[in-house]
Amino acid sequence: MALVIAVDGPAAAGKGTLARRLAAHFGLPYLDTGLLYRATGRRVLDEGADPADPAAAERAARALDPADFTRTDLRNPPADAAASKVAAIPAVRAALLDFQRGFGAAKGAVLDGRDIGTVVFPEARVKLFVTASAAERARRRHAELAARGAAPSLEEVAAEMAARDARDAARDVAPLAPAKDAVLLDTTELDAEQAFAEAVRIVESLQSK
C-alpha cells in the first residue's frame, strides 16, 4: 500500500497546517477532508434547510463539485456548526467515504480530518492524532477569525468549539477519537515549526518499523 499519513484531531489543533506541510515534505497529495463536510453543510444552508436533516444533507453531499471547495465562506462559525451536524449523518459519511479512499489509495496521500485513522484508512501505517488544550484551540480559532475581520468574541468562539467537540465525540457514526495505534501529538506548547519537526520525526520513525 502506498504511504498514507492519517492526521486526525479536533478543530484548531493545528492539524491542517501540519498535514499540508507533511504532504509537501514527503511529496504526497493532500486532502482536507473537513472541506467535504463544510461544503456539504454550506450547500444545505444555501437551500435554507437544516444541516441535521438526513435527506437534505445526503442530497448535498452527493451533489458536491470542485467549485464547492473553493468557496470563501467555508471557515466561519455557521460553517463549523453545519459541518459538525452533517458529519453525524451516516448517509453523508457513506457518500463521501469512497471519494476519500480513492484519493489516497493509488499514490498515497496525507489526509486530515476526524476519522481518517479509524474509518477511512484504518490500515494506514502512519496515524497522528493532533490535539491541544481547549483554551489554546479557542485562542487560535479566534485569532484566525479576527484576521479575516469578522470574529465573534473569544467567549463565543470557545462556546461554539465546545459544542462542536461534544457533538463530534458523541455521534454514533465515527465519533472523534484517536485510533488505537495513533501517535498523540499535543501542540499546546508548540509553535508551527516545533510541531512540524516532531511530526516529521514521528512519521520517519513509523516508516522505519
Structure overview:
The chain is of the alpha/beta class and 209 residues long. The chain has one domain (4-207): Rossmann fold (3-Layer(aba) Sandwich), CATH 3.40.50. The protein has nine helices and five strands, in the order E-H-E-H-H-H-H-E-H-E-H-H-E-H. The protein has a five-stranded parallel sheet with strand order 2-3-1-4-5, with helices on both faces. It starts with a strand and ends with a helix. The mean pLDDT is 92.
How is this structure best summarized?
This protein has helices spanning 15-26, 34-46, 54-62, 77-87, 90-105, 116-120, 134-147, 154-170, 192-207, and strands at 4-8, 30-32, 109-113, 126-131, 183-186. With 209 residues, the chain is of the alpha/beta class.
Mean pLDDT: 92
The CATH architecture name reads 3-Layer(aba) Sandwich
Q: What is the CATH superfamily label?
A: P-loop containing nucleotide triphosphate hydrolases
As laid out across the biggest beta sheet, the strand order is: 2-3-1-4-5
- For this structure, what is the CATH class? Alpha Beta
DSSP strand content: 5-15%
User: Span from first to last CA?
Assistant: 15 Å
Per the principal axes of the C-alpha atoms, what is the gross shape?
A: globular
Topology as H/E string? Answer: EHEHHHHEHEHHEH
Structural class of the secondary elements? alpha/beta
Q: How is the main sheet built? A: 5 strands, parallel
Q: Using DSSP, what is the number of strands?
A: 5
Q: Tags for this entry?
A:
single chain; 209 residues; alpha/beta; Rossmann fold; 5-stranded parallel β-sheet; globular; nucleotide-binding; kinase; ATP-binding; kinase activity
